[in-house]
């Protein structure tokens, strides 16, 4: 069996410095105080590295980032937050070499718990060799790592027995001891490697991830975030007040002054009063953030109600549009939606939860059963610092974090109302109609359709029955 052993930092990942990943653990598992403290100590960590004591700098970063945290919380961050940032940093040439071997081992200088889920689920490694956090009897990390025991070479020797790894991937300057055990060695850039029978073209994509930060917090980015937060809170307050106080027609113009921009494509349908129909239009939207229905109402310049599932009470209070809370009991929700549609337009996001990556989750078919007046609306957004919606933490902060971004750009694309032959009235099944709308919206945005549901997302983020593959709808 052909085998490969690779360093993670500096080989499979382009960046050899794991500091920003410790910053992510500090921010997502603890908060701003630990995040700021670790940033303050970064010059000390860097000085230790320059003095040839990088091991002490690494131990200091591990201590500050993890001491006092529950290991379960570190595991949660490693499962729900870190994979997205690791994936963005993957060296695809190194990955192609790594994936072409049958047995794959990854060596990391960070605690194993931080990387194991990513390298096994997304890079398809068989084993991870890294340091182990010391945990007390209460399940809290002490910030220390286990000393003594087998070296990296010794642990790799145990994995391979009398066999030598066929290939070692690592940085030439790292002088990793395990590289001397390999029959061949390769260093960046890896594109000159001669092995061409690549079996896997790309790592398993990250579809579901969580956390507040949009960008990986390198020291310079982390400084910008900390300096911006006081201004961001003030800006969020102003933006929220604008949405609550001003009339709908004025909001797009005033919001632009405070860095919010909406790009509209297509022609929205006229308001219910301008038509002779007995029911309103059902706007079927992609679900990127909790602000999708609010932005749509601003574009339409009228307060269109939106159905909701699990937003916080604070989000409902701050919402400038009416909300209709559903129960997830099918017949009850159907009656609620019919009742609102009989009075006017309604917004629904049939994915049932947000998805940040360029994928669409499976659409619930309930909307297709209730009306034929369906207008698909493709929505996407761009922000700089903070994500608007998270599954972890206090969801009441979702609208505040969204409005704290320096610039907000939303793109809203109205598609044509579904023709009669594409609705249930023509004999099509509700699921066929839902799949058709999903494909229309995915094609408009350049996204991929999946069969994943809201339950799949939360199972993945919670670590239950993690998803290791995704399937596209035809």
Automatic annotation (TrEMBL):
Q: Does the keyword Transmembrane apply?
A: yes
The molecular function GO annotations come to: glycerol-3-phosphate 2-O-acyltransferase activity; phosphatase activity
| Topology term for the membrane | Multi-pass membrane protein
| Keyword Acyltransferase attributed | yes
Q: Where is the Phospholipid/glycerol acyltransferase domain?
A: 281-382
Q: Which Pfam families match?
A: Acyltransferase, HAD_RAM2_N
Cleavable signal peptide: none
Q: Sorted alphabetically, which PANTHER family does this protein's record hold? A: ANCIENT UBIQUITOUS PROTEIN, GLYCEROL-3-PHOSPHATE ACYLTRANSFERASE 7
Q: Which family does it belong to?
A: Belongs to the GPAT/DAPAT family.
Protein name per Swiss-Prot or TrEMBL: GPAT5
Species? Actinidia deliciosa
Q: What is the lineage of its organism?
A: Eukaryota, Viridiplantae, Streptophyta, Embryophyta, Tracheophyta
């Amino acid at each position: 069996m052909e085998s490969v052993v690779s360093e993670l930092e500096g080989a499979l990942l382009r960046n050899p410095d794991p500091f920003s990943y410790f910053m992510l653990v500090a921010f997502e598992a603890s908060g701003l105080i630990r995040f700021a403290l670790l940033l303050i100590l970064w010059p000390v960590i860097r000085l230790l590295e320059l003095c040839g004591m990088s091991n002490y700098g690494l131990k200091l970063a591990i201590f500050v980032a993890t001491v006092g945290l529950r290991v379960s919380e570190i595991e949660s961050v490693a499962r729900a937050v870190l994979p997205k940032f690791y994936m963005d940093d993957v060296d695809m040439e190194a990955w192609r070499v790594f994936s072409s071997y049958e047995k794959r081992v990854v060596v990391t200088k960070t605690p194993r718990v931080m990387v194991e889920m990513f390298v096994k689920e997304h890079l398809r490694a068989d084993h991870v060799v890294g340091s182990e956090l010391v945990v007390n009897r209460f399940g809290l990390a002490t910030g220390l790592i286990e000393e003594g025991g087998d070296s990296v070479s010794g642990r790799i020797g145990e994995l391979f027995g009398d066999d030598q790894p066929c290939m070692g991937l690592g940085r030439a300057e790292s002088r990793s001891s395990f590289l001397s055990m390999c029959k061949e060695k390769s260093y960046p850039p890896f594109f000159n490697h001669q092995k061409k029978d690549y079996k896997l073209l790309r790592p398993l994509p990250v579809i579901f991830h969580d956390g507040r930060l949009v960008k990986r917090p390198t020291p310079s980015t982390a400084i910008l975030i900390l300096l911006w937060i006081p201004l961001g809170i003030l800006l969020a307050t102003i933006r929220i007040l604008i949405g609550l106080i001003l009339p709908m027609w004025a909001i797009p113009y005033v919001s632009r002054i405070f860095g919010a921009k909406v790009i509209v494509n297509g022609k929205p349908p006229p308001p219910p009063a301008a038509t002779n129909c007995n029911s309103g239009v059902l706007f079927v939207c992609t679900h990127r953030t909790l602000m999708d229905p609010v932005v749509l109402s601003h574009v339409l310049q009228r307060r269109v109600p939106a159905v909701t599932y699990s937003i916080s009470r604070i989000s409902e209070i701050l919402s400038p549009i009416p909300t209709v809370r559903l129960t997830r009991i099918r017949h009850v929700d159907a009656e609620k939606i019919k009742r609102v549609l009989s009075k006017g337009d309604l917004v629904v996001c049939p994915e049932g939860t947000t998805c940040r990556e360029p994928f669409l989750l499976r659409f619930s078919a309930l909307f297709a059963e209730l009306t034929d007046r369906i207008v698909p609306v493709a929505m996407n957004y761009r922000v700089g610092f903070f994500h608007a919606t998270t599954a972890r933490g206090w969801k009441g902060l979702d609208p505040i974090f969204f409005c704290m971004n320096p610039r907000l750009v939303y793109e809203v694309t109205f598609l044509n109302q579904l023709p009669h032959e594409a609705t249930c009235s023509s004999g099509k099944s509700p699921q066929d109609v839902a799949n058709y709308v999903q494909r229309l919206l995915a094609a408009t945005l350049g996204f991929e359709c999946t069969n994943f549901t809201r339950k799949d997302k939360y199972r993945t983020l919670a670590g239950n029955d993690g998803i290791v593959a995704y399937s596209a709808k035809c």
